[in-house]
Amino acid sequence: MLNVFDMLKTAAVNYARYVQTRNEIANLPAEIAQDLGILPSDAERIAREAVYGKAA
């Protein structure tokens, strides 16, 4: 069973991954984002799903 410190560490690592992913998507050059079929405004949703999984 995870203790509180392990849970906090996991949460911090996941949040750091989320922030990095969100920032990278939001800052993609327009041409690359268009080629990938994503909008920078979708960066938060895409990053959240990538790190935490898709909500049911």
Strand content: under 5%
Ends apart, CA distance between termini: 25 Å
* Total strand segments: 0
The radius of gyration over CA amounts to 14 Å
Element order, helices and strands? HHH
Shape: elongated
In total, the number of domains comes to 1
Number of helices: 3
Please describe the biggest sheet, giving its number of strands, its sense, and whether it closes into a barrel: none
Structural class: mainly alpha
| Residue windows where pLDDT falls under 50 for at least 5 positions | none
Helix content: over 70%
Q: Overall mean pLDDT score?
A: 93
Organism: Tabrizicola soli
Protein name: DUF1127 domain-containing protein
What does this structure look like?
The protein has 56 residues and is mainly alpha-helical. It has one domain. 71% of the residues lie in helices and 0% in strands. It is built from 3 helices and no strands. The protein has helices spanning 4-26, 30-36, 43-52. The longest helix has 23 residues, at 4-26. The chain is elongated, with a radius of gyration of 14 Å. The mean pLDDT is 93.
Give a concise summary.
This protein is mainly alpha-helical and 56 residues long. It has helices at residues 4-26, 30-36, 43-52.
